[in-house]
Write a structure and sequence with these properties.
The chain is of the alpha+beta class and about 625 residues long. Helices cover about 40% and strands about 10% of the residues.
């Protein structure tokens, strides 16, 4: 067995309260590595087409990778995988924090959970042993009470608790998962999958420690990072992801009032700098990470505490600028509510903004909602978030996500529903960052801003030494370009970011955002495993993931017809430096076909060709499409 891996999975059947330990084959590990790639391998092999994501037999998987548990900054992310109840397609969401390393310390590389408990349970996994415990006392309780209560009940604070929340118990389609109350698997609604299984939490820990196969080589990379990273000069550490607010405002692509505008007149009130000056009390971090980019805030008069961390950029935009809100304390309160109920803040903010615009258009009325909805009112999210999580009143409709809510409302609501494949769009503007048009439209999980680095970085390519030069990206591409050169740059950069997800590397630490160079990542992965993988082989794993994600979604009926964007992005921006700018439908259609061809997919069907699948050694998956009539 290679170094870094525990070499085994734990299968858990909640219906029968049984477990089974399963060894991992080294060939499978080298080909599928970990994370979402290893997850989709099992999902395709073990689930039928059309399975209800909330059915007892539908699996929920958690996958780490070889570097989990190591001392390398950023190397300890892990993936949750399932069929998404929000999109009906492939669902994956990564998280940082401490749970992934703790699972490795418990002696496992991953979990596969099936079944449904007859009553609420939580799992205790420690040093290779798994125990089922009654969770009735924790059902319906806020996340912090659950996290603290379970660790108190176990009498050992070394346990790390991953949980679904009240939103997941109520099967809100964008319910999240969270470990330590502040490290979220935000997207795809995987909290609803866990809640449907009557599985409240998974507490993990143990005494197994990460031991690289080549310790001297691993230490060299650790020393390299220490020498090249200066935390006191890193704005990601100083101001967190909200450091981007000012830049996006300046470029005219700060999502404002449901993506109608690209600039927000009160942006100065919600910057990372303003947070640092006012409500920030600590800078939190993930396992062994020197960057410490997490925000921990306090607003005593609103009972906001650091337990739930603090708002990231996505939350500030989704709850704040999207709804015309600039009261940072109220945004922090809304963020804490999402943390207490364990909701995805992106989808939550977008469904609220959708409701406000629907109200303005007369699609929703005061009788429907129970109170007035309007942009700029900080009380709107505070009132709606509990209603969504508890499925009360209008919240029951919004809990379905904007796709289903719009279909039920009719009367033009679908025209203002901002989603791809049913997943609400993140807080980045494809009319200004043109590669996001491809990223959103083709992402297997629905609209996702984490497919690749964003367009402003592409303008900085040059023939000399720079972070992405090893990928052959050596010529600048304009931010507003959506031609073949932009598609090529996106395809190459996407492979790197997909690799990060597979091996558990944080994109805030890896280049081009962070300092860890590609060569150093390859060196550390080889030191961990004892293998001799090249960058070429690792990027092939990224290509393999794209092919399998695509095949899974084709099998589930989410093919090329789903590669679309909301109508809004083909309409002109109404305010900001890019006022009047829009995506051109023909340019977008041409870019999609170019992308398919560069990926080795059929340009008509969008399915990876047989030759591509053979080259990637995943041709075993193609018959799955024929078996379900695709």
């Amino acid at each position: 067995m290679p170094g870094g891996y525990a070499g085994r999975l734990l299968r858990i059947d909640l219906t029968h309260r049984s477990t089974a330990c399963e060894p991992l084959d080294e060939l499978v590990l080298r080909r599928y590595l970990g994370g979402g790639l290893l997850g989709v391998y099992y999902l395709l092999r073990e689930t039928p087409a059309g399975q209800d994501p909330l059915a007892p037999e539908a699996p929920l998987l958690f996958m780490t990778s070889a570097m989990n548990g190591s001392a390398l900054s950023g190397a300890n992310r892990y993936s949750a995988i399932a069929k998404s109840p929000l999109t009906g397609g492939f669902g994956e969401s990564e998280a940082g924090g401490y749970w992934g390393p703790a699972l490795k310390q418990a002696g496992y590389d991953g979990l596969i959970v099936t079944g449904r408990a007859s009553r609420p349970v939580y799992l205790v996994i420690w040093d290779g042993h798994c125990e089922f415990r009654d969770a009735s006392a924790w059902w319906g309780r806020p996340a912090a009470e659950v996290d603290e209560g379970i660790r108190h009940e176990l009498g050992d604070r070394r346990f790390i608790v991953l949980q679904t929340g009240i939103a997941g118990e109520n099967r809100v389609r964008f319910a999240a998962l969270v470990n330590n109350c502040r490290h979220f698997h935000g997207r795809c609604g995987l909290g609803a999958v866990m809640g449907a299984k009557h599985l409240k939490a998974i507490a993990v820990g143990g005494k197994h420690r990460f031991v690289p196969a080549e310790q001297a080589a691993a230490r060299e990379v650790l020393h390299w990072f220490k020498e090249h990273y200066d935390r006191l000069q890193d704005t990601m550490h100083l101001y967190g992801t909200a450091r981007g607010v000012k830049n996006l405002q300046g470029l005219g692509i700060l999502p404002t009032r449901h993506f109608q505008d690209g600039a927000f007149e009160h942006f100065q009130e919600v910057t990372g700098e303003r947070m640092a000056q006012t409500i920030l009390v600590r800078r939190g971090t993930c396992y062994a990470c020197a960057v410490a980019c997490k925000r921990e805030v306090a607003v005593p008069e609103l009972a906001v505490t650091p337990v739930y961390g603090g708002p990231e950029y996505e939350t500030i935009a989704a709850i704040g600028t999207m709804n015309g809100i600039y009261d940072l304390k109220k945004i922090a309160q809304a963020n804490q509510l999402c943390g207490q109920y364990v909701l995805d803040t992106i989808s939550t903010g977008v469904v609220i903004s959708f409701a406000i615009e629907a109200y303005q258009r007369g699609i929703l009325s005061r009788d429907d909602v129970g109170f007035t909805l309007g942009y700029g009112d900080p009380e709107v999210p505070i009132r709606l978030i509990p209603m969504i999580a508890e499925r009360r009143g209008i919240g029951a409709l919004l809990a379905e996500g904007v796709l289903r809510a719009a279909r039920r409302l009719g009367r033009g609501a679908e025209e203002i529903a901002l989603h791809v494949r049913g997943q609400e769009v993140p807080m980045h503007e494809p009319r200004g960052k043109k590669s996001l048009a491809i990223a959103y439209a083709t992402s297997p999980t629905g609209a996702d801003h984490m497919e690749a680095p964003h367009d402003p970085l592409y303008e900085g390519f040059y023939p000399g030494k720079h972070p992405l030069a090893p990928l052959g990206l050596i010529e600048p591409v304009n931010m507003l370009d959506l031609g073949p050169r932009k598609v090529r740059a996106f395809v190459y950069a996407q492979k790197l970011w997909s690799l990060y997800n597979i091996v558990g590397m944080c994109c805030f630490v890896g280049v081009p955002i962070g300092k860890l160079e590609i060569e150093q990542l390859v060196r550390f992965f080889n030191a961990a495993t004892g293998w001799d993988v090249s960058l070429w082989e690792l990027l092939k794993a990224a290509e393999r993931s794209h092919a399998l994600f695509r095949i899974y979604n084709q099998r589930e009926g989410l093919g090329t017809a789903a590669d679309t964007l909301p109508r809004r992005f083909f309409e002109p921006l109404q305010a900001g430096p890019l006022k009047g700018h829009r995506l051109d439908p023909q340019e977008f259609a041409d870019a999609l076909k170019t992308y398919y061809a560069m990926m080795g997919w059929d340009v008509t069907t969008g399915i990876p060709t047989q030759q591509t699948c053979i080259e990637l050694d995943v041709d075993w998956a193609l018959p799955l499409l024929h078996n379900c009539g695709v």
